[in-house]
Design brief:
single chain; alpha+beta; about 230 residues; 4 strands
Length: about 230
């Protein structure tokens, strides 16, 4: 055995790290390379440092262009809604309605852009959003299940229907399942008092609903969605 190897045995081999996300791989590779160069030379040579700095400038410029694309779309959307309602009284609510109609909810980045565009405090925008139950702060589910909790439905055990939905889906009033498939909503009245308690599933109204029927409604929605996806 070489005497040098006896004095300096090879370092133990560490297990390979978990693969980083694709957008972080370049960063990991660059840091690894710099560590190897510094370990070999004791410093990073100027020539290598200058070349890396140049590459980083190119990368930053690309990232700025990507950021501009992401922000540009939001900015254009907000400006279009503001221009549409700028001369209307109470235009903030109208603009928020337009935003929710477009996205299905009010994304935070859109609310921030609206704050900048109108010169209104972001807190004020969220005051309006949270005051009116119509507005949503989270992406809605693909399928909406609405339980009527008006007086007639309340007296006919609408709470039991909501409890069964919570049992079947794991979410309650105003919540969306983790897979974004179902959103549960409770409203005061849907105008079907004669058929209470009532539930609306994806726009279809069901009357005189029993808690034991909820599982069948959910299974029917899932089956219809699967059949639709299976069509060529």
């Amino acid at each position: 055995m070489n005497p040098t190897e006896q004095l300096h045995p090879p370092a133990p081999v560490a297990p390979p790290p978990a693969s980083p996300e694709p957008w972080k791989q370049d960063e990991v590779a660059l840091l690894t390379m710099l560590e190897e160069i510094e370990r070999k030379h004791g410093y990073i040579p100027h020539q290598i440092g200058d070349e890396i700095a140049r590459l980083l400038e190119v990368k930053m410029e690309r990232l700025k262009r990507i950021q501009g694309k992401l922000e540009g779309g939001v900015r254009r959307d907000v400006q279009a809604h503001v221009a549409r309602w700028k001369d209307e009284e109470g235009n903030l609510i109208m603009i928020l309605h337009a935003i929710q109609n477009q996205y299905g909810y009010v994304p935070r980045e859109v609310a921030m852009e609206l704050s900048r565009e109108l010169g209104v405090r972001l807190a004020r925008i969220y005051e309006v959003i949270t005051f009116y139950h119509y507005f949503k702060l989270q992406p809605p589910g693909k399928h909406n299940v609405t339980v009527c909790n008006g007086t007639a439905c309340y007296l006919k055990d609408a709470a039991g229907l909501l409890n069964e939905l919570r049992s079947q889906l794991g979410v309650g009033e105003g919540q969306t399942t983790a897979d974004r498939e179902f959103h549960v909503e409770v409203v005061r009245c849907i105008g079907c008092c004669g058929m209470s308690p009532a539930v609306v599933c994806d726009g279809k109204t069901h009357g005189r609903v029993k808690p034991t029927e909820i599982a069948g409604f959910i299974a029917g929605i899932r089956a219809a969605a699967a059949a639709k996806e299976a069509k060529p």
